[in-house]
Amino acid sequence: MSQKLELKETLSEFFRSNSDIKYILFGGKGGLGKTTLSAATSYWLAKRGKKVCVFSTDPQASLTDIFERKIFGQGEVEIAPNLFALEIDADKRIANYQNEIRNKIKEMYKMEKIPDEIEDYINSSSAEPAMAESATFDAMVELMTSGRYDYYVFDMMPHGHAIRFLGMAEILDQWVAKILDVRKKAAEYGETATVLGGGKGGLAQEDYVLKELEFIRGRLDFVSNMIRDKKHTAFFYVLIPELMPILDTRKAIEMFREFNVEISGVIVNQVYPETLLKEEGVPEFLKNRIRSQQNYLNQIAEEFGSMIKGIVPMLEREPKGLEMIERVSKILYGE
Ligand SMILES: Nc1ncnc2c1ncn2[C@@H]1O[C@H](COP(=O)(O)OP(=O)(O)O)[C@@H](O)[C@H]1O
Ligand SMILES: [Mg+2]
After folding, report:
1. Which ligand ends up closest to the CA of 65?
2. Ligand 1 mean position to 32 CA, how many Å?
3. Domains of the chain: which residue ranges?
4. Mean pLDDT score across all residues of the chain
5. Could you tell me the CA-to-CA distances from 162 to 217, 264, 300 in Å, in that order?
6. Hey, which of 23, 184, 219, 277 would disulfide with 233, CB 3.0 to 4.6 Å?
7. Does ligand 1 have an atom closer than 6 angstroms to the CB of 311?
């Protein structure tokens, strides 16, 4: 291993000196190890007697694969003592929303059947990626406010989404404030409004929309406050010793900083053991890869320095199943 890559603080030291942490987030590009490291972290915490729920918010993710258990759409599944895993079926949640919307429309307009145009509109909304995100955030807030766990570990969606979502929270804040202001003015001219609006129906619907917006804002605020709360939340970024992930991590750190989100540390995954360079019979092809990784490791040490909280070697096979996850957790956290 490159000499420069010595950890100033390991992950277990981090958790020891930040004992109020409750929420742990793993971010980074796809395919680098977010789900694996989320699982290993949850495993380690559960082994130490903490009640943990690991929740995959990445639609690509698969705790089902990693734990080799049917988890998708099953609610909180107990994997080992104190260790629970959750993978929501976003499509099912969206279908439930759509039904709620249908019922509300029928109720509000006293309709027996939803007109076809509106039905088409409701159906097309399920294809929107924002709907899946919204369903995921709903489930996140539900889980966190349940208070049933000592730790909540979130295997996050790729960072672009998370940043977009933080931006959304700010826009929505302004939007709701504006609507509230307009509503207040309307109330001041209450009588005129009633006359012009042709009765109370207009205002009642406006109130309904406002209530929905405030509900959405409440959820977004909850999550964006959680991400910013350094006392209770740790946010780790996963990268590997390659150019694109380094550039990506740099950019993510900058972008999150713009939203006052500080990343707690980075974890370097999939590192080929340097000792292979001295072994006989290792193909030149692989040795080249290892040398290239060593260069990038030096770059990572220079750029991220004390932020590096863990290094995980490339294992001889994909870490799947509890035994392999235990192995990763021992590498990350020690015995
Ligand atoms: N240290 C490692 N050694 C070998 N394979 C790994 C390692 N870390 C992750 N993998 C494999 O790489 C793939 C991507 O990892 P995963 O945790 O699913 O990434 P992400 O959640 O960021 O997309 C998976 O097939 C996983 O088993
Ligand atoms: Mg994943």
Report:
1. 1
2. 6
3. 11-95+124-333
4. 87
5. 16, 16, 23
6. 23
7. no
Q: Verify whether ligand 1 is closer than 6 Å to residue 293 (CB atom).
A: no
Beta carbons within 10 angstroms of residue 101's beta carbon? 16
Q: How confident is the model at residue 4, as a pLDDT? A: 56
Closest by CA position to 11, among listed 145, 141, 153, 140: 153
Question: Under DSSP, is residue 49 helix (H, G, I), strand (E, B) or coil?
Answer: coil
Tens of pLDDT, residue by residue over 49-86, are 999 999 987 666 589 999 999 999 899 999 999 999 99
| Residue among 29, 34, 318 whose CB has most ligand 1 atoms within 8 A, to mutate | 318
CA distance 234 to 25: 6
CA–CA distances in Å: residue 287 to residues 3, 175, 271, 275, 298: 18, 56, 13, 10, 17
Fold adopted by 11-95+124-333: Rossmann fold (3.40.50)
Helix (H) or strand (E) run with residue 295 in it = helix 284-304
Q: Is 42 in the pocket of ligand 1 (CB under 6 A)?
A: no
pTM for the full predicted model: 0.88
Rg of the Cα atoms in the chain: 24
Kindly report the protein residue whose alpha carbon is nearest to atom 17 of ligand 1: 33
Phi, psi (degrees; rounded to nearest 5) at 251? -65, -40
Q: What angle do CA 84, 86, 91 make, to 5 degrees?
A: 165
Instruction: Please give all residues whose CB falls under 5 A of ion ligand 2, grouped by chain where several chains appear.
Output: 34-35, 58, 61
Q: Return d(Cα 287, Cα 277) in angstroms, integer.
A: 6
Contacts of 274 (CB under 8 A, 6+ apart): 1, 2, 290, 294
